[in-house]
Protein: SULFUR DEFICIENCY-INDUCED 1-like
Amino acid sequence: MAVVMKQLDRTEEAIEAVKSFRGLCPKQAQESLDNILIDLYKKCGKVDEQIMLLKHKLRMIYLGEAFNGKPTKTARSHGKKFQVSVKQEIARILGNLAWAYMQKGNYIASEVVYRKAQMIDPDTNKACNLCHCLMKQGRYEEAHAVLQEVWQYKLPGFDDLKSRNRVEELLLELQESGMPLPSLMPNLPEDLTFDDDDFVEVLERVMNEWAPARSRRLPIFEQISQLRDQMAR
Structure:
């Protein structure tokens, strides 16, 4: 019913319907109802309510009460079913939470949450949004470093035409900022040659410059624990 109301652009009524009748639904249905509410809040611009519900979903995962105690759950998108892990769900929720903070203009909080989401399950879309948050704070070199990571590691989603266009648009904005920025594509030093004797040295020097060691990922729930104070705003 709520989905039909949403399609009819009766979002406020749909929200009230879910709130009124969710008490009659079984425990297993509550997570799906939360997801419906989040979509409805997003559609009608209720950002604060969206943030509150996303934090609630994170807390449920942290307490081990989500997924009905299972490591994965079955999700549906565009009529297709697929399996989602706890790790993927946490990254998805964090991405939505960071987006909500960004809509409120709280770019510092959004940056913090996007970085945590990227540590768990990095992708190009979240990286672009993180870049946007950094640019809004005037931190252009850090924003460029985020885009450089997208190009260097070919993060998931990079092959999507829309995502690549977004990367190029952000890069253009960075260039227009007037900040001196290095190229995203690596250039070999002129003094290096590719003779067999020194090829290993060449490779090592290039990797040291363009492929720095990535930060070690912390256990998922330790990250969520650290986020509780940062997101309590």
